[in-house]
Amino acid sequence: MITIKAWKDSTTLPTILVATQFDFLRLSNWHLVWIDLSGDDSGQHREWMQNRVGLPRLAVDDALRDRHPPKYENLDDEWHFLLMRGFDVNSTSIKFGTIQLAIFWRDNILVTRHVKSSASVAVVEKALLGDDPPVPERAWSLVYLLLRTVLDLYLPITLKIEARLEEIEELLLAKPSDRLLGELMEFSSQLKRLRRISSYHEKSFVSLTAHAGRLRGLDSAQLTDLHEQAERLHSLSSLLYETTTDLIDGYLSISAHRLNNVMRVLTVVTVLFVPLTFVAGIYGMNFDYIPELKWHFGYFGVISLMITIAAALLVLFRRRKWI
After folding, report:
1. Would you tell me which of 91, 102, 182, 281 could form a disulfide with 63, CB atoms 3.0–4.6 Å apart?
2. Neighbours of 101 (CB within 10 A)
């Protein structure tokens, strides 16, 4: 699917253009043009990006890949290329899914490409058609709006994870369970992804900032804002990942401690009954001649011996602080 929005000037709402009738030779007649390519029709997308828009083949190859780490490239003919990992439209909970979002821009034209529906693109499109739409001066204005939206969508979910981890920490102390361990393992997996993605984003913005002095239209304050937001997400996701790892280790330690307590009780019971079983086994043998069997007080003597052995062992365990 190809959607084209075009602005006559910075004060009017965008006009939706028919893709088959769009003429790139008249691109200069528009104040700003945003071409959004969505879906898995890579052949059609390559035709538009490489042949009609004139983007470099290697950059188009990266944009069409199913998986590629986020990055920034300064291309020929004043084109800029950013690969980002954004949320899909169904990512509203901790179980989030990501998609690859390719962004190309130059002067008054912006080209975006994504296979699945992008949450950040949907938010920006809604804002552009709202009651108080932002005023995009040049392509960079839209790029900044997109990038800031991509980063902002990560924050609520990250904060949800942080709040839930605080609850789990209290539950682990009160009533640990395997369900909590399963939830922590899921958080660990998601936070590992989030930490990796935010690290790539941070490096991309560092690279973009390094080229800012030679690029036209880039606002240094906006670049700093994007870098700080990516750095914050990377720092927060790393901290939460470490916290999750600590909670998993804490759960395993608590489980091991509880198991040790159970095994200690079972060991004490076993040790108590081993000598008693030995004594009972001696006098339970079917020999004709066991002197104590005919003794009048033999039963009471053996019982007294068993009680004495058990009491002595309990005193020993208590002094050694085993119980």
Report:
1. 102
2. 25
Q: What is the pLDDT at residue 218?
A: 66
Q: Which residues of the chain have pLDDT under 70?
A: 10-11, 25, 89-93, 131-132, 135, 212-219
Q: List the beta bridge partners of residue 81.
A: 73, 104
> Which residues have C-beta within 8 Å of that of residue 129, sequence separation ≥ 6?
13, 14
First to last CA, the chain: 72
Residue found under tokens 């030995």:
278
Strand order in the sheet with 80-87: 15-17, 2-7, 32-38, 109-114, 98-106, 80-87, 71-74
DSSP-based helix, strand, coil % in the chain, nearest 5: 60, 15, 25
Would you state the structure tokens that stand for residue 1, as one six-digit string?
Answer: 């699917």
**Number of CB atoms found within 10 A of residue 47's CB:** 12
Check if the beta carbon of residue 260 is closer than 8 Å to that of residue 322.
no
Which among 49, 48, 36, 42 is positioned nearest to 75, based on CA atoms?
49
pLDDT at 131: 67
d(CA 146, CA 129): 15
What are 35's strand-pairing partners?
4, 111
SS3 222: helix
pLDDT score, position 66: 80
Distance, in Å, from the CA atom of 260 to the CA atom of 19, rounded to the nearest integer, reads 70
- E strand or H helix that includes residue 52: none
Asked if 116 contacts 50 with a C-beta cutoff of 8 angstroms, the reply is no
